[in-house]
Amino acid sequence: MAKLDHDPQIIVFGNWLRKSCLDELPQLINVLRGEMSLVGPRPPIPYEVKEYLSWHRGRFDAIPGMTGLWQVSGKNKLSFSEMVRLDIRYVRERSLWLDGKILFRTPLAILGQIRESLQSKNPNIEEGA
Predict the structure, then answer these.
(1) How, if at all, do strands 37-39 and 65-67 pair?
(2) Within a 10 A sphere around the Cβ of 4, how many other Cβ atoms?
(3) Which of 11, 49, 105, 118 is such that its CA lies 20 to 30 A from the CA of 21?
(4) 19-74 residue pLDDT tens
(5) What domain range is 42 assigned to?
(6) Which among 30, 37, 82 is positioned nearest to 61, based on CA atoms?
(7) Is residue 128 part of a domain?
(8) How many domains does the chain contain in total?
(9) Does 127 map to a domain?
(10) In angstroms, what CA-CA distances link 17 with 11, 14, 58, 86, 114?
(11) Is the pLDDT of residue 7 over 80?
């Protein structure tokens, strides 16, 4: 569940957009059109769906979202099965309170992702600095 690092097809500015999560902003158009929600399971790629087991399909019981429980619970550090379990947990427990909690935690998760990216580039950056 990790994005490919150092993909030669992505330009330097594109890598920066991905690491800062700004590449997700165009999805706001999908939210405004009603095709996505702010919070929900990430939309799957069609070729992935062909490989799904029957229990994986439980994540389809909610409108796809820009952010979700998986994104704020470890994202690329988690396995596919852990992602699916978190998505299904969100579908079962969804509420205005949970959506608010996820929306609050999303910027913190993005900042953590940016910090980790900077630390991996410069290991001399200290924790907590």
Answers:
(1) parallel
(2) 9
(3) 49
(4) 666 777 788 898 999 999 999 998 888 898 999 999 999 999 999 999 999 999 98
(5) 12-121
(6) 37
(7) no
(8) 1
(9) no
(10) 10, 5, 31, 26, 11
(11) no
